[in-house]
Amino acid sequence: MSRLVQAGLMSRCLEFKPSPTLTLGAELELQLLDKNSHNLSSSSPQVLRLLKGNKNVKSELYQSMIEITTDICDSALDLDQQLNTTLDQLRSACKKL
Q: What are the 10-residue block averages of pLDDT along the chain, 97 residues in total?
């Protein structure tokens, strides 16, 4: 039992649930730039509207940032494919701005 539990600082023990196999995932935080000036662009609301429904593209604290995530992947190849698919969709959306 951990010292935190013994000291009453933790109300309950969290049970570790191992995966049957090793898994991985990725998260990219990207800056959005204006294609002409190359300055930061506060265009994440427009990009997110264009990608509405894509659960792997999320807003960040600043409107010049976008976060891309993957699902839980069983291999590096799966991770690469997921990232590239989402990045392709992001590129297409940004070209429409």
A: 53 72 93 95 96 94 96 95 97 94
